Amino acid sequence: MPAEKSIYHPNPAISQNAYISSFEEYQKFYQESLDNPAEFWSRVAKQFHWETPADPEKFLKYNFNISKGPISIKWMEGASTNPVLQPPRSQC
Question: Where are the domains of the chain?
Fold first, then answer.
């Protein structure tokens, strides 16, 4: 394993049409997902077809404190979708 890390940049013709077209844009999305996960993932979820939409009050629940009960993470509790009905990525 090399001691130094290499960075391989994608072909610009490919990255200009990518959903996330730069590392800086990726970092922005990543930070937003950490700072406000419910809002970030709620916006992503709006790009999909939902048979039963997620209740905003049950969108994200978690407990990482063992003194408050079992460790748990619940996303979009009660929501359901059909992957066959999702729009092509170009239409999102």
Answer: 21-83
Collect all residues with Cβ–Cβ distance below 8 Å to 55 and sequence separation of at least 6. 77, 78, 79
Q: Is 11 helix (H, G, I), strand (E, B) or coil?
A: coil
Q: Is 19 exposed, middle or buried (0-12, 13-18, 19+ CB in 10 A)?
A: exposed
For helices 37-45 and 23-35, the axis angle rounded to 10 degrees is 120
Q: What is the pLDDT of residues 8-53, one digit of tens each?
A: 888 888 888 888 888 899 999 999 999 998 889 888 888 888 889 8
- What does pTM read for this prediction? 0.64
